[in-house]
Amino acid sequence: MTTSTAPLHLAVIIGSTRAGRFGPTVANWFVGRAAERTDLTVDVIDLAQARLPVDLSHDPDVRGAQALADVGGRLGDADAFVAVTPEYNHSYPAALKNAIDWHFTQWQAKPIGFVSYGGLSGGLRAVEHLKQVFTELHAVPVRDSVSFHGAAQQFDAKGRPTDQIAAATAATRLLDQLAWFGRALRVARAEHPYAA
Questions:
Q1: What angle do CA 144, 145, 151 make, to 5 degrees?
Q2: What pLDDT digit, counting tens, does each position of 30-73 carry?
Q3: For residue 1, what pLDDT is reported?
Q4: Distance CA 62, CA 68 (A)
Q5: Which of 17, 57, 123, 170 could pair with 95 in a Cys bridge, judged by C-beta atoms 3.0 to 4.6 Å apart?
Q6: How far is the C-alpha of 35 from the C-alpha of 29, rounded, in Å?
């Protein structure tokens, strides 16, 4: 396979680390949708399991250094990203910002999409903030996102959206955009290495 035809490697990042979080329910559904495609392979990075250091020093302990190397390598291998995020106080979780701030070149010249959830806003204010942050890091936020308003009531007991058609349509639109930008940017990075 060539650079333009090989499946894209999509990293799905679960941004919430709170006890009792709803993020894995949303992420599991989305990953299931992505896994149905032949043009993608999926790697789930759960920040609750990654245990990145919270002190942004340049001298993390051994465990922190290993966590950074693991997550950094997985982000570096990705051709595209999706952040699954709730909205905390009109923005996104601290654990997600921590993961973003520990890494730089891994995000560059790659597309990122968002799956958000929350109350009335469906996490969209978190997404708007994240788009600004990722643009600063030379990532390419795609236009469309998936959002669940009143998320706890939008999923059934088996972790499926109650409006499966609307959710699937939104997920397909997001994945199509990520795939298009992911292929184009992968070819561009191979032909002209990106320099920030």
A1: 150
A2: 999 999 999 999 999 999 999 998 887 767 778 788 999 999 99
A3: 57
A4: 10
A5: 17
A6: 10
CA distance 45 to 106: 14
What domains can be seen in the chain, in order of their start residue? 8-191 (3.40.50.360)
Residue 126: which residues within 8 A CB-CB, separation 6 or more? 85, 86, 87, 88, 90, 91, 92, 114, 116, 118
Q: What is the C-alpha to C-alpha distance for residues 37 and 41, in angstroms, rounded to an integer?
A: 8
The DSSP bridge pattern shows strands 8-14 and 80-86 to be parallel
What is the DSSP secondary-structure string of the chain? --TTTSPEEEEEEE----TT-SHHHHHHHHHHHHHT-SSEEEEEEEHHHH---SS--S---HHHHHHHHHHHHHHHH-SEEEEEEE-BTTB--HHHHHHHHH-SGGGTT-EEEEEEEESTTTTHHHHHHHHHHHHHTT-EE-S--EEEETGGGSB-TTS-BSSHHHHHHHHHHHHHHHHHHHHHHHHHHHHS----
Low-confidence ranges of the chain (pLDDT < 70): 1-4, 58
